Amino acid sequence: MKLVHVIPHMDEEAAGPTQSVVRLCEALARCGQRVTMHTMATGRPIVNVDVVVHKQCRILGQFGFSLELVKSLYIETTRVDVIHNHSLWSFPNIAAGLVSKRGRGILLTSPRGTLAPAARARSKWKKLIFSPLQQPVIDRASCLHATSAMEYSDIRALGLKHPIAVIPNGIDIPVLNLQISQPNTNRFRRLLFLGRLHPIKGIEILLRAWLVLQNIHPEWELVIAGKGETTYVDSLINLARQLHLKRVSFPGPVYGDAKSKLYFSSHLFILPTETENFGMAIAEAQAHGLPVITTQGAPWSGLEEKKSGWWVERSQENIESTLSKALNCDATTLDDMGKRGREWMISDFDWHSISKQMLSVYEWLHKGGTPPSYVALN
Q1: Core-most of 87, 198, 278, 293, by most CB within 10 Å?
Q2: Positive or negative CA dihedral for 211, 216, 221, 222?
Q3: Mind listing the pLDDT tens digit for each residue in 88-117?
């Protein structure tokens, strides 16, 4: 099949959609599909995928647009089988909706968490203004894609009647080797937050929980790694200083082998998020053998079922009590939880099987017939 994927940008490796869409396209290409990606910014090559980066102009320094992108997608609609749009509320997503009724290309849209209540509450005025332009990418889609049952519920709550394919993101399973998977050799055990530094992630809750626990558990340190807006990162560092926190560090973003080394040298992962449509960092942590603490704003109830972590209601009290319980676990208990999590990722989230599921949805949309079992029609 000839497939076109549309994503606003791919220049931030730390962003969950950036990682998952890139890996999906590479996995589809390994399945023998012809894959082209259209975007307005990229930071790295993609294996066996044609990447078209379009020049963009910016309105008020923020909203990027590209007439070149519209023209290119307009041409693509006549010669592709499926146009797969990723995310909403950016110009490339608007362009995908505007051109989708021309030609033969069938449109599939992955909201990537943008229809969650917390996401819709952000930048309300901007979304109200651009809604008439954005709506076609939803209305004209033959199918929507949710990465979890939670995201599926968010979509249905808006009254959307489309078929919805519920397919999780895949995960790269890191190879255990001596060069990367060296244990932490300093004198502290490591509690790790790794991801986008943003108010929705609950880092302030984590810092206040650490204030309560830091003296009770002097053998632990807290590392908060990731990229965020400068003013917000500065506010987190200032909060840590105001609270007189000990053994807390902010090393900034980490990528590639450095990120794997940080996972492997940690002992426990935490993400006290308000909402996630999937939560790539949780899957990454489990794939590296780390037990995870996260909230019910993330679709990871399986942590409890697999006994590989904790899935709790989001509140300061719950985060503190759960973190206290986890920090009191001995090394063997945490290691066993992490091993169960890694086995789970290998079993259910390998990119090869995920890409096969997505390909079967494309083929159903293109040829008709009985939909795959993971497509909900109502």
Answers
A1: 293
A2: negative
A3: 888 888 888 888 877 677 999 999 988 888
